[in-house]
Amino acid sequence: MELNYAPFNFAKEDPKAAAIKQLYIRQALQLAVDQNGIITNVDKGYGFPIYSPLPPNTASSISGTVPNPYPFNLKAAKALLTSHGWKIVNGVQTCENPGPEPSSVAPASPRATRSI
User: For 64-86, how does the pLDDT look when each residue is reduced to its tens digit (9 = 90+)?
Assistant: First the structure.
């Protein structure tokens, strides 16, 4: 059995963690992950998308139906970032409006950028 996953580093000492602490960043990242496309094209159909901490074959009487809260949608991910001051400048995703608000990039990151 093989398990594939892509974790994000939430360690406080990681300078990129300031951005990951923001809910809208995590939402945009999740919206940008095509779980079904990865399962189909990379894992050759051997896999299940997971939307909760419970395995996908957990009895519905225990877990209930768990819908995908952030279905793959690049336009929605981009709109979410744009609405919080992010834009592409010379091929680099840049936050032009960082601030201390809970919905903005944390103040520890005065100018957050990420190459795309």
Answer: 788 889 999 999 999 999 999 99
